[in-house]
Amino acid sequence: MVFELNENKVVLGLSGGVDSTLAALKLKEKGLAVTGVYLNVLNDKEGQKLAFNSALELDIPLVVKDIKENFDNKVISYFETEYLKGRTPNPCVVCNPDIKFSILKEVADSLGAKYIATGHYAKTYYDVDLKRWFIKKAVSEERDQSYMLYRLPEEVISRLLMPLGDVLDKDIVRREAEKAKLSSAGKKDSQEICFLREGQAYSEFLKERGVVTPGGPFLDLEGNVIGKHSGISNYTIGQRKGLGNTFGKPMFVKEIKRDDNAIVLSDKEQDLYSYKIISSNNIIRIPFEGLKVMGKIRYRAQPSSCYIRPLENNKIEALFDEPQRAPTPGQSIVFYLEDYIIAGGFID
User: Fold this and answer.
1) Which fold would CATH assign to domain 213-267?
2) CA 283, CA 149: separation in Å to the nearest integer?
3) Residues of the chain with CATH 3.40.50.620
């Protein structure tokens, strides 16, 4: 059934934190009818209470969606499987398109709301010549979260509102929230991986879930055994601390060989650097061949200049002007032309 969506209605992901609460307030002040949606991932009664309080303060309706089973099957299962493969996952880049924004779109459709909104620090951009929507960087370079949103489909981007994309920094957000007497103003930022307890290491979470990999050899660059590791799921490329062995000098994880259950170490940090990175499972928004762009190999990395070209089997090759430290299989590489995202994928 085809029906017309109401341009005055917006569905917003409301966690109860200061970002989503202020985003809702900004949209409401523009005259939009806002409905909050709380995604109950972990049966978190305290989190749900915060979202209810924010909705009451804003005087907006709140929809609670219990998504624990779906989240477990799609996001946590992916997280566990990647570590079993010796890769380092970023669950947010899977959750955003497959869970969070998918559910927000469902709720928006059910309520006849044209728009979807969140408290992310990012923007959208419509290119009139290409007739396409793009995710664009936030004004705040420090807070920018566009990297986490690169896999969103265009059907979501075209309906997406992110009021914090134009905010210069988080202090401004907190001051505006305080001025509006929002109780979330002083709430501290949540951690990046929402299903870990505060301060919990990912390896501890995996053990609690029964995800354990057997010990095996540490190898030097020549293939000699120089120690024993505690399981490939406990390590990531570039890691120096917490190796569980004393080598008499700093050692870095250079490679994880899943098939051999071995981890290759190097005592030279420069061995971790690479000019060329291959990625797969790509989102490609414009055709390109030898295009000069800015590539970002992990969320906290600084974008760096590179040439990109498509390869066979839906892959991208990136050749950087400066070598990149520890490109890590499982993490995402995201490519920006100016300040909008044109492609991205998981590092091989």
Assistant:
1) SH3 type barrels. (2.30.30)
2) 11
3) 7-186
What architecture is the 7-186 domain classified under in CATH?
Answer: 3-Layer(aba) Sandwich (3.40)
Catalytic residues: 95, 194
Residues of the chain with CATH 2.40.30.10: 271-347
Look up residue 301 and give its DSSP letter. S
Q: Outline which parts of the chain fall under CATH 2.30.30.280.
A: 213-267
Using alpha carbons only, what angle is made at residue 202 by residues 206 and 93, rounded to the nearest 5 degrees?
105
Q: Count CA within 13 A, CB hemisphere, residue 278.
A: 6
In the block, residue with structure tokens 């103003």: 185
User: Model pTM greater than 0.90?
Assistant: yes
What are the pLDDT digits (tens) for 67-115?
999 999 999 999 999 999 999 999 999 999 999 999 999 999 999 999 9
Maximum pairwise Cα distance, the chain: 69
* Bridging pattern class, strands 304-311 and 262-266: unpaired
Q: Which two tokens stand for residue 244?
A: 């569980």
Q: What CATH architecture is 271-347?
A: Beta Barrel (2.40)
DSSP 193: S
Q: How many CB atoms lie within 10 A of CB 249?
A: 6
CB 15 within 8 A of CB 194: no
Res 340: pLDDT:
95
- Element containing residue 157 per DSSP (H, E): helix 154-157
Structure tokens at 258: 């899943």
Q: Are 280 and 346 in contact (CB under 8 A)?
A: yes
Closest by alpha carbon to 187, among 57, 315, 66, 313? 57
Single out the residue of 304, 329, 331, 330 nearest to residue 319, CA to CA: 304
Q: Which residues contact 44 (CB under 8 A, 6 or more apart)?
A: none
209: amino acid identity, one letter: R
